[in-house]
Every structure is written in structure tokens, then in C-alpha cells.
Amino acid sequence: MALGEQLILEVYRAVRSGPAWHSTLLIITYDEHGGCYDHVPPPWGATPPDSTAGEFGFDFSRFGPRVPTVLVSPFIQAGTVFRPPGPTPLDHTSILATIEHRWSLPALTRRDAAAPDVSGALTLTTPRTDDPIAGVVAPAATPIPPELAAQPSHLEQIHQALLENAAAAEK
Questions:
Q1: How many percent of the chain have pLDDT more than 70?
Q2: CB-based contacts of 47: which residues, under 8 Å, 6+ apart?
Q3: Given its phi and psi angles, is residue 56 left (phi above 0), alpha (psi -120 to 50 degrees) or beta?
Q4: What are the E-state strand segments in the chain?
Q5: Region 59-81: what's the mean pLDDT?
């Protein structure tokens, strides 16, 4: 996790010190929820991207578990917690919707056409000049001891077991 936090801090500092900072929206989000428990069940009412059913007949009419997302811009008021108006929550397709609305592009699917965008979080008319994380230091990553570095990771072990199970099932 420390390496991920270091990466985010390095990206933020690079973007913030770049020439386009005063016209930038940096979106930091996660691909999935990471298996963490969430007391809020995923809501129904998502617009499917198309009429194709997914694996096991999944129809994409339900949103997935909540994932953390951070919006970073000099046009966002400090301390903002953004939720769009209306019943449709933000999801990964909200990033697409934001890009499509900003540059007047057509939607890729029905899902992103129905998604709310995040532009409502950009409430300031002049960019902020403060650096809210000035002086922040990312945690140092704990080095992996050499005797552990040579061993397969937990994910590699799971992958190997899945491959062996699939091979056994084919026989």
C-alpha cells in the first residue's frame, strides 16, 4: 500500500507543478472495491451499456460496490464532498461522462450516456493557489526480505491452483 501512496503523491506533485495545473482535474480512483466490507449494498437502477447479457446472464442493471475516488483540482473548494443531484450515483462511467460532456463527445454506451459527471464539484471561478498537502510525506515501503522475495506471492499461488484445477477439469 505504501508504494501506491508514493505513486499517488508523485503523480499529484508532477501534475501540480506542471504548466497545465490551473486547468486540470486529476481523478484518482480504484478499479474495484478491493474486497473491503461495505454496509451499503450496491443499488439497482443502473443503465446497461447495451442489450448484451454478461457472464451467467448478468444484465448490468445493478451498480457495483462503492469504490474510493478523489477529485483534485484548483477549482474545487477545500473540503468538498461531492454527490451529484438525482438518484443515479457516480460510478466509473462518470469519468467517461465528464470527458464526453467537457469536449462535446458522443457517449460510448447507454451506461455512460446516463451517468452523472463530476463537473458539479468544480465550483470555483478562479483557481486556488494553496497546496493542501504541502509537507505530506508518503509512508516508506517495507522492503521484502530476500528469502521471501524468491517465494511465489499469495496471488501467484492462487493463480497456479486455478490453472491446476482447470487442467484437471479438462481431463
A1: 100
A2: 61, 110, 111, 113, 114, 115
A3: left
A4: 26-29, 69-72
A5: 93
Helix, strand, or coil here: 71? Answer: strand
At 138 the pLDDT is: 94
Cell 439497482 belongs to: 44
Amino acid at 166: A
Q: Is the pLDDT of residue 92 over 90?
A: yes
User: Which grid coordinates belong to 101?
Assistant: 460532456
Give me the pLDDT at residue 113, please: 97
How many Å apart are CA 90 and CA 86, to the nearest integer?
10
For 163, residues 6+ apart whose C-beta sits below 8 A from its C-beta are: none
- At residue 77 the predicted structure's pLDDT band, cuts being 50, 70 and 90, is very high
How far is residue 153's CA from residue 5's CA, in Å, rounded to a whole number? 21
Task: Using alpha carbons, select from 26, 29, 21, 8 the residue that is nearest to residue 138.
Answer: 8
The amino acid at 27: I
Phi and psi at 156, nearest 5°, equal -65, -35
Owner of C-alpha cell 465550483: 123
Q: Name the percent of the chain in helix, strand, coil, to the closest 5.
A: 35, 5, 60
Instruction: Give the confidence band of 31 by pLDDT, cuts at 50, 70, 90.
Output: confident
Q: How far apart are CA 79 and CA 148, in angstroms?
A: 42
